[in-house]
Structures are given as C-alpha cells and as structure tokens.
Design a protein that fits this description.
Keywords: Lyase
CATH superfamily: Phosphoenolpyruvate-binding domains
Shape: globular
Strand content: 5-15%
GO molecular function, one term: lyase activity
CATH architecture: Alpha-Beta Barrel
CATH topology: TIM Barrel
Order of helices and strands: HEEHEHHEHEEEHEHEHEHEHH
Strand order of the largest sheet: 1-11-10-9-8-5-4-3-2
InterPro entries: ICL/PEPM, Pyrv/PenolPyrv_kinase-like_dom, Pyrv_kinase-like_dom_sf
Protein name: 2-methylisocitrate lyase-like PEP mutase family enzyme
CATH class: Alpha Beta
Number of helices: 11
Organism: Actinomadura viridis
Helix content: 40-55%
Radius of gyration: 18 Å
Largest sheet: 9 strands, parallel
Number of domains: 1
Number of strands: 11
Structural class: alpha/beta
Length: 253
C-alpha cells in the first residue's frame, strides 16, 4: 500500500529525498529517475496556472494534478497550502478525497495570505480534523515561522503543538544551521522535514543532524524555467534533454 510505504520511507536508514513536481510529466520523470516518492510544489502549480502561490486560489488545479499523479507507481504527497478553506471540516473533506484517490500524504501550512500565521490552536484543530477524516494519510504539518519575519521564536512551540495535534511529520521550510535544525529535531519525535537550500548543509550533513526528509520545494520548477530561458536565448540544447518520444512514453504509462 502506497500510504504505508510513504510512512516507512520516513524511518529508513537514510532520509527521504523528495522531488517536488508541478505536472504529471515532471512526476513521471522523477519516478523514472529512481525517486521512491514525489511531492508537489504549490508555487509550480500556481505559477503554471498564472496564479500567485499561497493565496488559496489553486484548489481546482491542485486537485486535478493530484488525480493525475495518483496514477504513478510510487507514493505521492500533495501540497494543499493552508487547505483552501478556513473551515476544518472542509479541509478534512478535501484530505479524505485525496486519500480515496490513492494519495499518500499532504502538506498543510500555517502561513496565511498577507504574511501572517494562523493561531496555533486553529492550526492544531485543522490537523486533528484532517487526521480524523483520513487516518492513514501522512500529514506533514508545516510551520512558516522561518519564512515570515518576526516569528522565528515561535518555531519550537509550534513544532510541539502540531506534534501533539496528531501530525505525522513536521516541516520547517527555511530552517538552516545546525543549531536550529538539531533543536527542531529534539522538539518532536516525528520525522523532521527541511528544504534543500543551495549553498547550505548537504544531504549527508542534514542526515547527521537527524533530519528525516529533505524536499526540493520550488527549486526544481524554478530551475526548469531558467533552463528553458537559457536554451531559448542561446539557441542550443544542453545534452540529455528527453526526446519528444521520451515524453510521450512517460505520460502514456
């Protein structure tokens, strides 16, 4: 079962290295490259639709992509931003739908439009409601304390609160530096997820600190945009680009 496999991937000998994708083809390509699971990037999903990220306006696009990615032979986790609703029961229903399609996990964040954080009690109620509606779904509770100015001091309190609320994993994007990472690891018995940051700690270094999941976030999507522009401007394709037939095969599986 994909959901059980996804849980187990957070407790292996090595952390789970998770590529974040924005389309079925990008997901299929990551599976072909050997990744045991894939996630989505909300920025990639939103920008592809011509919409801003983290504004709660991509529910339809996110669900459409989830239905497609559920075809993949590996576990898939979906970034649902803050759940696309202020009502816990509606977010819980969304999670239950995703689970019924074969989706293995979700990311749920406490950041809200306008650069504010949801009150901890409200976010805990959201996490608890989602777990009640979809008990097997891996709920990765994300706190944006390190992405929003002035909130860093709340990080560990929120890590502990979301742990007690029933989350399966904790995600602290923007967390960097050994002291901060080790403190977050020590604050929860759940797997800690951090972003891979170019120029920051290596995968091996993060593993040694106790991190159990390393995500790419929007990096792969932004890299793909950059590569497309460079190719167009320079008028020559770098080696290794998939052929037309390669892509047709990926999406026809």
């Amino acid at each position: 079962m994909k959901t059980r496999t996804f849980h187990d991937l957070h407790h292996g000998e090595r952390p789970l290295l998770l590529p974040n994708v924005w389309s079925f083809a990008s997901g299929a390509a990551m599976v072909e490259a050997g990744f045991p699971a894939v996630g989505t990037t909300s920025l990639g999903v939103a920008a592809t639709a011509g919409k801003p990220d983290a504004a709660g306006g991509t529910r339809a696009e996110t669900l459409a992509l989830a239905r497609g990615l559920a075809r993949l032979p590996v576990p898939v986790t979906i970034d649902v931003e803050a759940g696309f609703s202020d009502r816990p029961e509606e977010v819980a229903a969304l999670a239950a739908d995703l689970a019924s399609w074969g989706i293995a996990g979700v990311n749920i964040e406490d950041g809200r439009p306008g650069g504010v954080l949801a009150p901890p009690d409200d976010q805990c109620a959201l996490i608890t409601a989602v777990k009640a509606a979809a008990p097997d779904l891996f709920v990765n509770a994300r706190t944006d304390c390190h992405w929003l100015p002035g909130h860093t001091a709340q990080t560990l309190d929120r890590v502990r609160a979301y742990t007690e609320a029933g989350a399966d994993g904790i995600f602290v994007p923007g967390l960097a530096g050994e002291t901060g990472v080790r403190a977050a690891v020590a604050a929860t018995h759940l797997p800690l997820n951090v972003l891979f940051l170019p120029g920051g700690a290596t995968f091996d270094e993060l593993a040694a600190m106790g991190v159990r999941r390393v995500s790419y976030g929007s990096l792969l999507y932004r890299t793909a945009l950059h590569a497309a522009v460079v190719t167009a401007v320079e008028g020559r394709a770098p080696a290794g680009i998939p052929t037309y037939d390669d892509v047709q095969r990926l999406v026809s599986a």
